[in-house]
Design a protein that fits this description.
Neuraminidase, 2 helices, Immunoglobulin-like, four-stranded antiparallel beta sheet, 2 domains
Length: about 350
């Protein structure tokens, strides 16, 4: 029984990682601990924590490409946001800005003496930032030449990434392994849970109704549907990454800042993010089963192959949505159903 269990774990691990493990293309590798990215036209700006600089590449160039320096001499930079031509950067004890149209660019202090600002997000004239040291989220008015920070909320555990959608300000809590949000229009904002059970979340990016979260400790990117009732659950998009810190969606491709590998990579699997979501909606039922199984969520007739826990092919055929696949002749145990589209599902025969 133990041997069968081990074999089952090996086989299911193979199919599962084949579906989700990173199949990426190196975009740029001459960057040092890339920690954040943003897109302006065809220019992908990269914030390098260890490189102490902002660099950029043309995202339409053939990969891998080389980066161009925008501004150097930064002091342990963490995050950046763009407002018009002004690029705001959080550093170890301050927020600075650079006019990206200048060549050479010069850096200007916006506010200093603010602890350890990590996350940045902007809404109108309000620039929001997290302070890792005192567990707060504050904001400043960027039109004020000598801004004074206003505390938005306190009692946040190790806040990292920020993202804004509408009136909701989302923030990651690194050691509490969760995402929460607050209403920036509220007189006394209250933090509400979005999702928990993450592994050291850092970067948050929003694309439409989807939020992408980098799990630095888990080496993966997960997604949540912002239209769902909170708290909600995540769906894995990509695994096998090396200390990811930020993501960005461009032309249906997922770009990832892999800090541990000193590179920006691009998700190059033949599956788009939407197709991954379609896969995650497909299920086998009943499960466990006696005489037959069905697959829900199919949008067309698909070919399939069936494997036992040893990885041996034991059957194949075609199936449509909710059509029966007979399994009455199988022995009791665990089986793998692999669809032609690439999705892999497991079921239990009673």
């Amino acid at each position: 029984m133990k041997k069968a269990t081990i074999l089952f774990l090996i086989v299911t691990s193979f199919f599962y990682t084949h579906q989700l493990k990173a199949q990426t293309t190196d975009v740029v590798t001459d960057v040092f601990w890339p920690i954040d990215m943003l897109l302006n036209g065809d220019d992908l700006y990269i914030l390098e924590n260890s490189g102490s600089r902002v660099s950029k590449i043309n995202i339409t160039d053939p990969f891998p490409t080389t980066s161009t320096n925008v501004i150097g001499g930064l002091n342990i930079p963490f995050r950046m946001v763009l407002n018009g031509n002004d690029l705001y950067i959080s550093e170890s004890d301050k927020i600075s800005k650079v006019d990206i149209t200048e060549n050479p660019a010069t850096i200007q202090d916006v506010i200093t003496g603010i602890g350890l600002p990590i996350g940045l997000a902007i809404s109108g004239n309000d620039l929001y930032f997290t302070d890792w040291n005192d567990g707060t989220i504050s904001k400043i008015d960027i039109t004020d030449p000598t801004p004074t920070p206003t505390t938005v909320i306190t009692g946040i555990a190790d806040p990292t990434g920020l993202a804004i959608q509408g009136d909701n300000l989302y923030f990651a809590e690194f050691n509490s392994n969760r995402i929460r949000y607050l209403d920036i229009t509220a007189t006394t904002p209250v933090a509400m849970e979005v999702v928990s059970g993450l592994n050291s979340p850092t970067g948050i990016s929003i694309n439409g109704d989807s939020m992408y979260i980098t799990e630095f400790g888990g080496g993966k990117v997960v997604r949540i549907d912002l239209t769902q009732t909170f708290p909600t659950t995540t769906k894995e998009i990509l695994t096998g990454l090396n200390q990811p810190n930020a993501t960005l969606i461009y032309d249906e491709h997922l770009f990832i800042a892999e800090s541990g590998s000193d590179k920006i990579s691009r998700y190059d699997t033949v599956l788009s993010v939407n197709e991954n979501e379609l896969f995650l909606s497909q299920e086998i039922y009943p499960n466990p089963a006696n005489d037959y199984i069905r697959v829900s969520g199919l949008t067309k007739i698909e070919s399939y192959k069936m494997y036992n826990i040893l990885g041996s092919l034991i059957g194949k055929g075609f199936v449509s949505d909710s059509e029966e696949i007979r399994i009455n002749n199988l022995d009791s145990g665990v089986y793998i159903l692999k669809l032609d589209s690439g999705n892999t599902l497991k079921f239990f025969k009673k």
